[in-house]
């Protein structure tokens, strides 16, 4: 059998599988097994995300004050954790992957290829790499669009993306209005803006720059 073409292909296939397992599973596990898992408080201590949370407090002052009080690091950590829990509970990961693969020019479409260290934190439990992309990969979604865009998009995806199969989430809003995100709405937007916020190339819209410059000591 092993002298036939099918035998050679079988051995080759098993060899490639073993190589892939060693390079993509075992080696990263050994590299990062002693790396401490980042806590929610450590993840919230992120200048890009702090900025986005401050921006939410300015754009939706009444709702923000009601549900989170002042935009401090404790309230940011609370919103970030809740946003993650909502993302998992609503099954967003069924249609959106969170893993930029090193194949097929994915980095051109989605940004920097994912690294193992990015997943060493509490918000990646459970891991939501995903396999389907009914919607785009969200690994680098944070900062690409403004908070207002996300508020409208969660309320009525088709109003911004006419061909989108994404359902509406009116329960993320008070009075069923996109300008009034409730505790859940603010939380899910915070979580989406966190995705990729640890990267140096985290983008910010030009119209956000003046606000950012005014923030001397945000969230002290």
Short description:
This protein is mostly helical and 220 residues long. The protein has nine helices and no strands.
Features:
disordered C terminus; single chain; Cytochrome Bc1 Complex, Chain D, domain 2; 9 helices; 2 domains; mainly alpha
| CATH C-level name of the largest domain | Mainly Alpha
What can be said about the biggest beta sheet? Answer: none
As for the number of domains, it is 2
Helix content: 40-55%
Radius of gyration: 20 Å
Number of strand segments: 0
How do the SSEs run, as a string of H and E?
Answer: HHHHHHHHH
Structural class: mainly alpha
Oligomer: single chain
Structure description:
- There is one protein chain.
- 47% of the residues lie in helices and 0% in strands.
- It has 9 helices and no strands.
- Helix 5 (73-89) packs across helix 8 (183-194) and helix 7 crosses helix 8 (183-194).
- It folds into 2 domains: 1-34; 39-214, Cytochrome Bc1 Complex, Chain D, domain 2, CATH 1.10.760.
- The protein has helices spanning 5-32, 40-44, 47-59, 61-68, 73-89, 106-110, 147-155, 183-194, 209-214.
- It is mainly α and 220 residues long.
Question: How do the strands and helices of this protein lay out in sequence?
Answer:
Blueprint: H1 5-32, H2 40-44, H3 47-59, H4 61-68, H5 73-89, H6 106-110, H7 147-155, H8 183-194, H9 209-214
Helix pairs in contact: 3-4, 3-8, 5-8, 7-8
